[in-house]
Design brief:
alpha/beta; Nucleotidyltransferase, domain 5; 15 helices
């Protein structure tokens, strides 16, 4: 099948769209990326999304209008990415996350992804699967991360233990033990995964603040690279309860957003840091939180770390990760044949494909769900 995968991540950079040819099911799963592109939101819409993510209030009518506006942008991205190809058979849209509340001991989690699938199906004429987190949350899961099951089949290695580290707005990891019978018998073979903490979202907020709105992100980490990280601050920030919490766990802008940045900037005042130093320190927090997470929660040290997401293009961040994880080599998924920029869009194409074929899409050992379930709600396209 040819399937379109769509997602806009926590950074709200734009809509990542991937047109993917998919065959097989799980162990024999194969993908061929036919086309991919990122389609920026119109600036007024992006600003509104960021405001909502930051806690701005909306009436129900305004929420409905925003939901439809995001869906229309997703539909346009789907139409554009398949230009020149036959119409796709299926579409999987993760939508735009604007709120995420992890579960606790007494309450189910709650997660809101805007860009309703019914509108996307209507505008594209393609059967659309959306709202992937809901079914996992309904059985006690975090609803995130959802990409590790695809990582297992596309990036697992017969002899190497691998960490697949996505650095989007939020960082998340999938630990893939070597797929050897002997290794599996050792008892150290459990697949696991969780959100590691802040990724690009906190850095982007800081860049916008420190540049008085002239910049939206630090290309290649070039600005941060001119500064010096304050390690005392990083160690202070790592004392936050989230970093100490055992998996399964997930997070979002609700924790690592504007209020958190404001606290970081307040903490930095006593160290007399300049703008570059602040960015270097926040970048160090992302790298250090990943390294800390591995030391604290992995069953054993990985042989390789593979990076994906926008943060994989941040040279300074990657250099700091390599230093903190040494001697473990750090690569990108590009080097293993899977596009690092569009890996998550590809993943939601696969999750839609699995839903179509009645294959459960979550990993309970990663999300904390009580059982494996089918993910996503199906919206049929109207017949012409």
């Amino acid at each position: 099948m040819n399937v379109i995968g769509l997602i806009s991540g926590t950074s709200v950079d734009g809509i990542d769209a991937a047109l993917v040819e998919i065959a097989g099911q799980t162990a024999d799963l194969s993908i061929n990326l036919l086309n991919a592109a990122t389609y920026p939101y119109p600036e007024p819409l992006r600003s509104q999304i960021l405001a909502v993510c930051g806690g701005a209030s909306l009436s129900v009518a305004e929420l409905a209008a925003l939901d439809d506006a995001i869906a229309a942008e997703f539909a346009q991205a789907a139409i554009a990415v398949q230009s020149g190809y036959p119409q796709a058979d299926l579409l999987g849209s993760h939508g735009q996350t604007v709120y995420h509340r992890p579960p606790d001991s007494t309450t189910l989690g709650y997660s809101v992804q805007l860009g309703r699938g019914a509108v996307i199906a209507r505008l594209t004429g393609i059967p659309t699967i959306s709202n992937f987190r809901a079914a996992d949350i309904a059985v006690g899961g975090q609803g995130a991360p959802l990409v590790p099951p695809i990582d297992v089949w596309l990036l697992g290695h017969p002899t190497a233990n691998r960490c697949i580290q996505n650095i989007g707005g939020i960082g998340n990891v999938a630990y893939l033990p070597a797929q050897q019978t002997a290794h599996a018998a050792s008892g150290a073979s459990a697949i696991c995964g969780w959100d590691t903490g802040p990724g690009n979202a906190l850095l982007d907020l800081a860049v916008s603040r420190l540049s008085q709105g002239e910049l939206t992100y630090d290309r290649d980490g070039a600005w941060a690279a001119t500064g010096s990280p304050c390690h005392a601050l990083v160690q202070q920030w790592l004392q936050h309860d989230f970093f100490r919490q055992s998996p399964p766990k997930s997070t979002g802008r609700e924790l690592f957003g504007e209020a958190y940045l404001q606290n970081c900037l307040h903490d930095a005042e006593r160290f007399n840091l300049n703008a570059a130093d602040i960015l270097a320190t926040l970048t160090e927090l992302t790298a250090a939180s990943i390294a800390h997470s591995y030391r604290s929660f992995l069953p054993q040290r990985p042989d390789q770390v593979l990076l994906a997401g926008g943060g994989s293009r941040n040279r300074y961040l990657r250099q700091r990760l390599q230093v903190l994880l040494a001697p473990i080599p750090v690569y990108t998924t590009d080097e293993m044949g899977l596009n690092a920029d569009f890996k998550e869009a590809i993943a939601f194409a696969v999750l839609a494909y699995w839903r179509h074929h009645h294959i459960p899409g979550n990993l309970p050992e990663v999300t904390g769900a009580e059982q494996a379930v089918l993910l996503g709600e199906i919206h049929l396209a109207a017949k012409s």
